[in-house]
Each structure stands twice: as structure tokens, then as C-alpha cells.
Amino acid sequence: MLTRVIGRLKPLILGTAGTVFLASCATNAPQDTFQPKGPNAQKIDSLQKPVFAVAGIIGLIVASAVVYSIIKFRDKGQPIPKQSHGNPALEITLTIIPALILAVVGVFTFRTVFDLNKTSDTQMIINVTGQQWWWEYDYPTNNEYGITQPIITSGQLVIPVGTKVLLRETSRDVIHSYWIPALNGKRDAVPGRITLNRIEADEPGIYAGQCTEFCGLSHANMRMEAVALSKEDFAKWVANELKPYVAPAKDSLAKEGETVFLNQCTRCHQVNGLTREDGTPVIAAPDENVWSGAAPNLSHLMSRNTFAGAMFDLLTPECRSDVWKSESATFGEKYLAGVSEPCLNQTDLRGWLRNAPEKKPMYANPALLADTGGKYRGMPNLGLSESDIEKLVAYLLTLK
Amino acid sequence: MANIENFATPSSAMGALKRPVVTKGWREWVFTVDHKKLGIMYMATAMFFFLVGGLEAVLIRLQLALPDGKILNADLYNQMFTMHATTMVFLFVMPMTAGFANYFIPLQIGARDVAFPRINAFSFWALLFGGLFINLSWFLGGAADGGWFMYAPNSGPIFSPSHGVDFWALGLQITGIASLAGAINLIVTILNMRAPGMKLMRMPIFTWMSLVVQFLLAFAVPVITVALFLLSFQRNYGATFFDVASGADPLLWQHLFWIFGHPEVYILILPSFGIISEVLPVFSRKPLFGYPFVVFSGAAIGFVGWGVWAHHMFASGLGPVSVAVFSISTMAIAVPTGVKIVNWTLTLWGGKLWFTTAMKFAIGLIVLFTIGGLSGVTHSVAPSDTQQTDTYYIVAHFHYVLFGGAVLGLFSGFYYWWPKMFGKMLNEKLGSWNFWFMVIGLNMTFGPMHILGLQGQPRRMYQWTENRAGEGFFNLAFWNLVASIGSLILVIGVFFFLVNVFITARSGKVSPLDPWGARSLEWMTSNPPKEHNFDSIPTVRHLDEFFHRKYAEDANGQMQQIATAEEVLKQLEDNADAHIHMPSPSYWPIVLAFGLPITALGVIYSVPLAIFGGVIILFSAFGWALEPSTAPDTDFDPPSSGDTSKDVVHVG
Fold first, then answer.
1. Is A44 in contact with B469 (Cβ distance < 8 A)?
2. Topology annotation, domain A2-19+29-74+83-116
3. Would you say B177 and B274 are in contact if contact means Cβ atoms under 8 Å apart?
4. Topology of A122-400 in CATH?
5. In terms of C-beta density within 10 A (0-12 exposed, 13-18 middle, 19 or more buried), how is residue B516 classed?
6. Which among A95, A98, A220 has the least Cβ separation from residue B462?
7. What is the pTM of this model?
8. What is the pLDDT of residues A209-263, one digit of tens each?
């Protein structure tokens, strides 16, 4: 009985299913795969939409045939049917039709695969390196875009709009995967290999992404954001990244923070231009202290909006949403303003400095590690005092 | 079995190397080599691991019900999803299908047991010990945490410092040995032990699909064996097969794993295809539509299944040529799969449908597997796959394939064959509750995952954040919650099944001889079958032999009953064979299998222990080889346990 009632209702259920599916999606999901914002993602989208439609129609046909049979051929006391063993002509027809549909899909797939792999018209190369659990972005010199010296940053990938950017990906430890859905599909970052991933953004804005190859404990926290700026704004961003280091004013809290930084942080974290009191440049040695051999370069930290592998925002929620929701015409200006003291997400930043492994699961305790020679995986708990944290925050705010 | 106790042991037996003398109580099961008992043991083991894997799944869904879940920490979550997949694939679906194959293949082909009964027993014990061994890691410092795909180098000793991956790799070797031995055994059985007249193209379709699966196992398991050896040597003996600094390429693991892993998908699904290809004709009262097409499409899937593995690696940077080729081959495999769906639907068409629980599960499979198959086609399109892979869309896809497909097929098999195995009918009312809760639960759990994935939620994240969940009422937070609630409804569905089993065991209706009006040979014997299956081996003249002994066309072309099942059986009993030879129980399969986890423990913890395990294996191998071939002396023919008193001789 139950079967029959549900059986009769099924066409209704299925008919509405498609509509419901479309109506039941979130609005503005940051990683929606159906909202391309650049030509590469657009090519994928143009391919996947018809495939979804065809698959949906075939699904409906099968479901309808089953439902029809359930209703029409249920046992109503009819005699035992003729023991027919099949109908080869019908079988062959029903084999050829799907094969033809798939052949058509195959042709378009073929074309798109090769199209997406084209790299000969690249305008800018960025080296992208994954490690547990953050991404490093390394911009080789590129005079056309004013990058006269290499730039190394992390947390946010900044690109100019309308520019064919080639990401050259690799990894320093395990396999990661780079994915900004609005710009292109995924590409794994494999240690010992360089994989290529082409992206291009049509308009200024901020596009969310996430590491999609399982990479261990904090895989879930390995996020990324791609920031697209107009060409003029990008030039400003480059100019800021290349600006020399400005030491904090004497006797300021920030200056004391610089000393804490020198003592505690520069073993792993580089700040370009930072010198010791005697004027010798400070070169960080993450390769001696961290298993992957790298730690984020913190030069111009406050020009970024995130930290700790984009797990946390440097901006308070209000300031963050102000940037994320701004119109594309004003986006660049808001983004380039960077992080000011009133906008700084003090809670997460202080929490991180207080005890990083508590905020983000990492193997920060070398005692838990086999055979790494005491090297950390991730940032350890530095045991900083509250006053040290106060000073450090003041100092980090100067790294504009 | 009750009457093969107290056998005299042949005087030629050497000391310890005798056949079991007492085969009552627990010994009846532990030393048995009867394919039916082993089949039931396989199924019970698989059901236990189904509950374990289900518990892991529920914990995962509880953790993900709300943003920033706190029920599990990252470490435990990673172990949980790794073990959920490992358990469901290797310790639930594979052993469950092995159980069905063990129990029903000899019956379906008119044989009295499998070709190598002791190896059959060994396979079961190796599976059980391997499964327990893997799960032992929970209590010894944590389970494997690298995902069931265990990608290098994340599976290495630096990145996964607990012993979990060691247990995982060695445990899967043990279950792999079980699978390989079982596969060879069943291939030989099917090819050599069919009843007279049972040509290959008269074999029941479940046996056919199982045959394809055994060939897949025989060729796929060695690949994962190699991969697991490399992994174990890397972890336990400092080898550098996947160490990039030493010049290794971690993609080697991915290729090895998926060359095994993709055929594995068909290993999981084809038996269920076979089961519903038995169930649909029985409850439609007409033969399977296009039997040869179903057979050949199954074989075609078995072949093409070897040429699609790299579709798991579309994002890994293989280069456009490989990607395009694997994309096309993946689309190609959709064609034989589609053939099956068409044939099942056309089997229903024009039938006289009887909606038993078994039939409901079978029809559920057609619809839900079709959804999984079609979402599979959407990511055979490689560029789309680079958006979809490693998101919840894939989780939705393969759960529709494996739960909507494989698991519903297995449940269809439970309800269909329960009277055959236990002589009692599972309760149909509870069965209906079982079905509807499971189907609604699984659609609620896995349906929303399509949306989650397409809207960008990646897999394998121990937490998700509201920042990425989007806005509106139907945002990702909503669908995560729906999926979690759905998983609890699924649990209720499974609970109804367990209650049904319990109630049926205590007070279930005794099954008539032919409760469903079945069509194939396994029903041409008592419920449950006698130890020797058939009193006389039937001669087969048709596909669906049993049906054609009961029904024939009259002058008007109408099917008319010409004999009852009881009459058919009576005829077999009247012509019973004299001197039926049955294999004797043996001590050695379980002892030999027990040596394997001991050796594996030794590999992890101490070499002397490994040597001790090796000694057990060696000693029991000798015991196996040297024990006498019969339990009693050969003059002694004990009576069978069936209604008819026929002579049964136990031989090795």
C-alpha cells in the first residue's frame, strides 16, 4: 500500500525535484562552482551545464520508466507473462543511443581539455608552493607589471585582472591542491614536480578557495583567497610590496615589539630589510627549524587580510565584510588600505601568538614527531608573555 | 552436522595432524569447511563491520552537523574517515559479497561445495583476523589517518607518526590474501564444478557477475599488494619508494592505488548487480530481459574497468593527452553500465510485479544507482571533474553508487535468500520499514551532498566554516544539518533490519520450500539446504532451470504450472546419489590464518614475534599438507542430516 501511494506520487516528486534543486542552493556561496569569474572557469562551466542537463533528462526518463512499470505492471491477478528473453534490436538501439550522446560529450570534452591546457599566451608567472598548511606565492621579476624584484607573500594571491596568469605549483612536503573555483578547476601541488594552472579574473574582487587534496591534520584549515585588482591598483600593490623596510620609531611599543620579533620569530619568519642593532641583516632559517623548510614571509603582513594559511582573518568581521562586499569599482581602494589598528582582528591574532597549535591543529610539538630531528611541523607554542604579545601586535601593525 | 560427531580417526594420521574428531558446538563452526557455514560466517563478520563503519559514519556526520564541530578533534576525525572507508570497502561490502558468493555459487551451479574447501575456510579466517588486526590500531596509539587512498608522501612515517598506517597496510595485506585465495577458489569452482548441462550461458546471473568479480580480484589485488609492500617497507624498514628527496615520484602510489582502486569499485558493485538480476525476474514473473547483454555488459565492465583508473587523478597534472584519453574511456564504461539499467527496467516491463521487500530494494537500486551513475558521467568530463573532485559532490556520487547501488543490492539479497539460508522468512512489514527508512535516510544524507559539493565544500575537512557557507536559508549550513539528520534516519533503517533478524530468529515464520516462486537451482533443495546441497545433482536444460521444471507453455502459449516445488524436489530425492563425498573439517585453516596477524604484529613491533608468526604459518602449512584426507576411515559412511538418509563420505 505504502509503495503504491509513493509510487503514484513519484512523478510529482521527481518533477519538482529539479526545480527544488535549483531553488535550494545557497546564494553567494564563496566557492560555488557554477559562478565563473574568469575565462578558464567559464569554459568549464559552458561544458558542465549541458552535461548536467542531459544527465538530468536521462535520469528522469529512467525514473519515469521504472515508476510507470511499478504502477502499470503491478500484480493485479494477471496471468504469468510470456517468458520473453529480450529483444536484441531494442537492446542494440538502447546501447547505441547513449554511446552517441557520450561521443558528442566526448568531442567537447576533448576540445576543452586541450584548450584549458594552453599556456603559450601567458602574461605573468607566479610560483605557488604548498606546505602544511599554507601557500607561498613567489612573483618572479616581471618588468611589464613593475615587479623589478621578486616578491614573496602568502595568504592571499594578488593578481591583475584581465591577465593570463600561469601558476607554477609545487609542494615542500605532501601533496596539496590549489583551487579557486571562480577562476579555474583544481591542480595538485606535488612535491618534486611542477604542475601548471592557468587563471585569469575578469573583474576586481576577492575569490575564495580551499586546499582540496587531503594533506594531514589541518587540511580543513588550509584556505586561500585570490585577490584580483585593476591593473593600476595592482601596480600600487607591487609598489607597496617593494617598499623598503621602515623600522618602528625609537622608544615606541612597536620598537620593543621588534626586539621580541628578533628574538622569537626570525628563526623562521623573514621580514625583508629587518636588521639587528648592529645593522646586520636578519636572515630567517626556517629550513633549520621547520620540517617543510619554510615559514611565511611576514614583510608587509598588514597589506594582507589573512594569516595562518588564510585560516584566520586579519580584519575584524565588519571590516572584512566591507572589503568582500564592496563594488568592483571601489574594491581596489578598500583592499589596498590594508589592515589598520581599528580593523585588526585582535582576538585571533593574539590567540595565535599565545598558543598557535591550540588555534590550529599542527604537530608543533617535536616530541610527537618521529625522525624529524626536532623540526616543527607548523608553528609551536612560543610561551610568550602577555606583554610580549602586546608589543608584538604593535610591531606587526607597522608591517604595512 | 550433528551426526558427524565421534568419528574414528584413521590410524594412518600422524600425531597432531589429524582431522577434527568432535565437530559439535563451537567446533562445528571453527573447523568447518562447509561453504554454507563459511558463507554465513562471512556475512556475520561483514555485518559486524558494517555496524562499526556505520558508527564511524555517524560520528563524522555529527561532527559536521554544525559549523566548527567539536565532537572529534582533527586527528580523530582523520582516523574516522579513513577507517570508515576502509571498513566499508574492505570489511563490509567485500566480505558480504564473498559471503553471498560462498553460500550461493555452489548452490546455483548445482555443486556440493567449492573446489578447495579448506582454502575457503582459510580465506574467511584471514579476512576476519585481517579486519580485527586493522581495528586493533584504535587501541594501540591510533588508527590510520591518511584516507583510504593513503596518498604518499602523507602516508609516510614523518607525516603519520602513529602505527595506524602500519596496521592498515599489513591488515589489508592479510585481507588481500583472503580475497586472492577466495577468488581463485571460486573461479575454479565455477569453471569446473557446474552441474551437467549448465553451460556458461545457462548460469544464473549472480554467479556470472561473481565470476567477473573473482577475475577482477585475481588481477587487482596483486597491484595493491605491491603498493602496500612498498608502503610497509618505506614505513618499517626505511625504504624510499615515495621519498621525494631521494628522487621518488609520489604519483607512483596514485597509479598503483587506482589501478587497483578502480576495478575495486566494480568488485563492490557487480555482485549487487547480480543479486538484483536474480530478484527482479523472480518478482516480475518473467526472465531477465536480455540475459546475454547483461552477461556481456558485466564482462565488458570488467575489461574496460582496467582502463579508467587515471580519472581519479584528473587534477594531478597528468597532461592533456592522458586526461583526454581517460576521460573518453570513462565515458565508454557508462555504456555497458547503462545497458544493465535498461535491461532491469525492461525486466519489470510487462511483468507481474510482486513488491516484496527484496523487490523494493532491487527497484530502489535501479533508481538510486542510476543517479550515482549519471553523476559519475558528469565527472567523466575531465574539466568539470577538476571543479568537482575532492568535493562533497564526489562523496554524494559514490555513496549513491555504493549505498544506493551495492548496499541496497545486498539488502535485497538478505530478504530474498534469508528463507534459503535459515528456513525462516524475514518479516515483510519490518522489511518495509527497513526499506523506507533506509531509502529516505540515504537520500537525505547523500542527496544534499550534491549541493554541498557543487557549491564548493571540499571533502575530508574535520570542520567547515560559516565563512564559506553562503547566505540564504538553503545555505551550506542547512544542507550539512539535513545530511546529518538523514544519517540518523539511515541508522533507524538499519536498526529495523537488526530487529527483524532478531525477531525472525526467535519467532519467524517457517519458510515454505519455494516462498517466492524462484527460478534458479539454489531453490531446488531444502531450506536450509542439506550439508551436501542436493540429493542428486540435477541435469540442467534451461536458463532458469527450476522455473522450467515448474512451468510450461500450454497450447495457447500461456504459462501453466506443471509441477510444484515439492514435486520437483521429490523427484531429486527419489533419484538420490549413493555415496556422496563431502570434505572433512580441518584444524589448519584457522591456525594458518592466525599466523598472519601475529607475523604482521611482529613486523611492527618486534622481529622475533614475526618469526614466531612465521613458524605458526609454516607448521600449519605442513599440518594442512599432511593431515589425512578423510576424517573418518573411509569405510564409514555417516548418514546425512537431511530428511533422506543417504550416505555421505567426508573427504579432504
1. no
2. Helix Hairpins (1.10.287)
3. no
4. Immunoglobulin-like (2.60.40)
5. buried
6. A220
7. 0.94
8. 999 999 999 999 999 999 999 999 999 999 999 999 999 999 999 999 999 999 9
